[in-house]
Amino acid sequence: MEGKKLLPAHVFSIYKKGNVRLERVNRPDDITVSIPVVEVHKSLFELIEGYEVMNQLSDR
Question: What does pTM read for this prediction?
Fold first, then answer.
C-alpha cells in the first residue's frame, strides 16, 4: 500500500502555515488594562436596570 505523493504545492502549504504560526507566537501582545468599576447594588432588579442603562449609553 502506497501513500500520497508529497507534491511541491503541499510542501509549500505546510511551510506557509508554519510561518503564520511562528509569527503568531512571536508577535507582541496588545494588552490594555482599564480602571475597574465597582458598583454596589441593593437588589438584583437594580443591577439589571443598571446594565440596561449602560447598554443604552454605549449604543449612542
Answer: 0.41
